Amino acid sequence: MPAGRVTKRTLPLNFLLLGPLSIRLNACEVHVSAPRQRVVMAALLFNANRVISVDRIAEYVWDGAPPPSAAATIRTYVMRLRQSLGEIASARILTRAPGYLLELGEHESDLGQFTAHRRRAAELAERGDLEGSSAELAEALALWREEPLADIPSQTLRDVEGRYLQELRLQTMELRFDTELALLRHAEVVPELVRLVRKHPLREALVGKLMLALFRSGRQSEALDLYRRTRVLLVEQLGTEPSADLREAHRRILSVHDRPRTPGPQVKPATAPAAPPASAPAATWERPCWPSPAQLPSVPLPLSARSGALARLQHFLTTGSMPAGMVATAVVTGRGGVGKSALALHVAHAVRGSSVHGQLYADLGGAARPLTARAVLPRFLADLGVPRDEIPEEASERESLYRSLTAGRRLLVVLDNASSTAQVRPLIPGSGGSRLLVTSRRRLADLDGAHTLQLGPLDGAGSLELLGSIVGPARVGAEPQAARTVLTVCAGLPLAIRIAGTRLLERPHWSVGYFARRLTEAPRLLDELHAGDLGVRPCLDADHAGLRRTAPAGVDPAEVFTALGTAGASAVSAGRVAVMFGCSEEQAEEALDALVEANLLGSPAGGRYRLDALLRAYAHERAQAVAVRQHDQPYMRAG
Q1: DSSP class per residue in 33-97
Q2: DSSP readout, 507-558?
Q3: Distance (Å, rounded) from C-alpha 219 to C-alpha 175?
Q4: How far is 462 from 178, CA to CA, in rounded Å?
Q5: Of the candidates 273, 295, 507, 522, the residue with the CA atom closest to the CA atom of residue 413
Q6: pLDDT tens-digit series, residues 570-592
Q7: Which letter does DSSP use for residue 601 in this model?
Q8: Range 204-224 average pLDDT
Q9: For residue 499, with 0-12 CB atoms within 10 Å meaning exposed, 13-18 middle and 19 or more buried, which class applies?
Q10: Hey, which residues does 534 pair with through a beta bridge?
Q11: CA distance between the termini of the chain
């Protein structure tokens, strides 16, 4: 093997992202003096081992307003960065369409080391070693230096990544407080909690921990006064009452349920029970024989435009802590074709290492062909080692067996295309270290304790990155205006962009401009956005079929949608709909909100609900279909 390659692999680097950015190579610090080059370096570091597009880097460098020459200037900045880092270290910055990739090991950055400490803390906590877990969390927090990204002159980067780092730090501190409280060190954590609550008075998780620490330290009146002051702040500033968790902590203190305690010797986990005698019969699916399923489907390359969402989900699934009896659950929601399944599977593959007992996967079919838990559970049980002839017939017994087999294990369960919470609840694994990841067009607001991520359309840079990854950056770059027209019609919907890219890829003789004209001049736009078994219309049909209907006295959302198609509206207000249907503004708003819930209308901004190009085309189709039916009905009656 060439000597240079060995040196590259073993090169000691230290990138500091938990404070002002600096780079250390072979114990010597390299200072990147040029402000914009520091922005480029920080963008590469935050996307380590992932491709980040030139457009996205330019958004950070010029704070959302890059000049026409941005791409060429970014190339120059990267070249100078490579020169600053030296020949061997610069080889870590790779050119990968549509941008660059920085190769970096987990222990070569503070952020990587921080994440590693967090992971080890979670593993130790799972094994009952709270002392070790607390020490790992302390090591993680000791890596913090001053204000994150303090010397990076990019407000956009600080808003996106700096806030993420601050939230990561706070969550880690909360985990350490939980561990210290579990070790009965309540008096020791009071001073630090007081300081943090003063800084974050509306962060209810911190308030609840301080209330508990005060109460256990014999300061019940202070704990109750803290709750009173926090409630006043929440009502005055947010217009909301304290959360259920904070109210429960208050109730327990009032009832003296969680009495003050003093530290005692740490109880060691009980030893495992002895194995049964050889003569005792045992089912073949008992714990020693459990298989480790690995059912995750493959996915295309990830988009740098989704890197933030991917990082947030990965962070929650690897470090999120839940109260006893609950399973950490994440729900990715959004309209059909927005990329929920792709994002969820990318995250699932990224966290496979923490799901040491395997991954279960099921496509629940969506609203069009929903698959019930009764149909899924037998397969999950068989995948966990239960012989098919020993799977119970009764649904309740299947659910109990499933929870028993998964309790105490560290599985990742991925449920794709859920249409209701009723599908999901029986498939929640037993309490312990397992994680549940769900995708749904619905928000599943009644799924208790779920962490919800609303996935929206791609922005301009992300849309361009996706189209370029399919047809090639050169073809897109040759006709930038036409490419933007295609992407405007696709409205940032990854499914629509993939179909557009596939059609261009299948027809190399088409120019991008010709295809853009086809899209803008087509009498039925959705006919053009169809390739093989992929189509935008089926997604919209499914959304329309699941549209919530109103009470008889209200306004039918489907009729409102048809009226918008007849009018060719791109935006509408509740007042306008009230005039159109002769109803109250409250009834009109209810119908419009039902369309938003069904992903057939954009969320209101400034009192106006908007339809993108795809929704306008679909609404027009629905209006035409209704007009044809109404025109034919007299003839049908006459015949």
Answers
A1: -SHHHHHHHHHHHHTTTS-EEHHHHHHHHTTT---TTHHHHHHHHHHHHHHHH-HHHHTTEEEET
A2: -TTS-HHHHHHHHHH-SSHHHHSEETTEEHHHHHHHHHHTPPPPPTTS--HH
A3: 23
A4: 39
A5: 295
A6: 999 999 999 999 999 999 999 99
A7: S
A8: 90
A9: buried
A10: 531
A11: 85
Lowest mean pLDDT among 88-92, 100-104, 227-231, 368-372: 88-92
Gap between the Cα atoms of 529 and 504, Å rounded: 11
Q: Are 617 and 521 in contact (CB under 8 A)?
A: no
Between CA 480 and CA 502 the distance in angstroms is 18
Q: Position 204: which residue type? A: E
- DSSP type of residue 605: B
| Phi then psi dihedrals of residue 300, to 5 deg | -70, 175
Q: Is residue 164 pLDDT above 80, yes or no? A: no
Neighbours of 506 (CB within 10 A): 10
Instruction: Tell me the pairing of strands 13-16 and 28-30.
Output: unpaired
For residue 379, with 0-12 CB atoms within 10 Å meaning exposed, 13-18 middle and 19 or more buried, which class applies? middle
Run of H or E including 586: helix 585-597
In residues, how long is the chain? 639
Which 3 state secondary structure label does DSSP give 565?
A: helix
Q: How far apart are CA 339 and CA 341, in angstroms?
A: 6
- The values of phi and psi at residue 179, to 5°, are -65, -45
